[in-house]
Specification:
Number of domains: 2
Mean pLDDT: 81
CATH superfamily of the largest domain: Winged helix-like DNA-binding domain superfamily/Winged helix DNA-binding domain
Helix content: 55-70%
Largest sheet: 2 strands, antiparallel
Order of helices and strands: HHHEEHHHHH
Number of helices: 8
CATH architecture of the largest domain: Orthogonal Bundle
CATH class of the largest domain: Mainly Alpha
Radius of gyration: 21 Å
Strand order of the largest sheet: 1-2
Structural class: mainly alpha
Shape: elongated
CATH topology of the largest domain: Arc Repressor Mutant, subunit A
Distance between the termini: 53 Å
Low-confidence stretches: 157-169, 187-193
Number of strands: 2
Strand content: under 5%
């Protein structure tokens, strides 16, 4: 399996939407995503049309419109998205679980190449079908915190109310969102303070 530019852009954009939502801003404009990821807008619009048709994102028109995730990040698996954009995960079709097609081998049951490709397909699908968007968003945010780097989208004016999700969200989840915002805000404030101190000393 080789990830095309289309597949790469789709996954990066979904991760951005997940990060923004986790930080209290569930909707982003296509221009913001294109600018952040340095992607062509027209190509990104085509990708989002495909993601929207499959039920992964939704859109809203207007000045404050944009794109947002159409389902929880915990219900978006990378394997499924890649299959949507790229097709089967299997390196050859005769070992695909979702798009099987017989190859040119005259004895498929005893084909050594097919046995090898079965293992390759299983290794790939095991990883990609296990990880959800929630997993990768969490990993990415932890990396930002560990490296003391301000994550994208925090430059927006974010109110505490916007960080809190709907009433149906578990209290523990809401508290986690607020705590994540506080940690990033404190980290950013500490960085600004250190920069001012350095500036004053020079």
């Amino acid at each position: 399996m080789k990830l095309s530019k289309r597949g790469e852009y789709a996954l990066r954009s979904l991760i951005d939407l997940g990060i923004a939502a986790e930080l209290g801003w569930p909707m982003l404009q296509i221009t913001e995503l294109a600018t952040k990821e340095k992607l062509p807008i027209k190509f990104l619009e085509q990708i989002f049309t495909q993601l929207k048709a499959a039920g992964y994102v939704k859109s809203r028109r207007g000045k404050f419109g944009g794109y947002s995730l159409a389902r929880p990040t915990s219900r978006i698996k990378f394997g499924a998205v890649i299959r949507l954009i790229e097709g089967p995960l299997a390196p050859i079709r005769c070992v695909s679980q979702t798009s099987y097609a017989r190859c040119s081998c005259p004895d498929e049951a005893h084909c050594g190449l097919r046995m090898l490709m079965f293992d390759v397909r299983n290794a790939i699908s095991t990883v990609l079908d296990r990880f959800t968007l929630a997993d990768i968003v969490g990993i990415t945010l932890r990396k930002y915190r560990r490296d003391k780097v301000t994550p994208p989208f925090l430059h927006r004016s974010i109110s505490l109310r916007s960080i809190l999700s709907t009433k149906s969200e578990p209290p523990s989840r809401r508290r986690a969102r607020v705590e994540a915002f506080k940690q990033f805000s404190e980290s950013r404030g500490s960085q600004l303070h250190n920069n001012r101190v350095k500036g004053a000393a020079t």
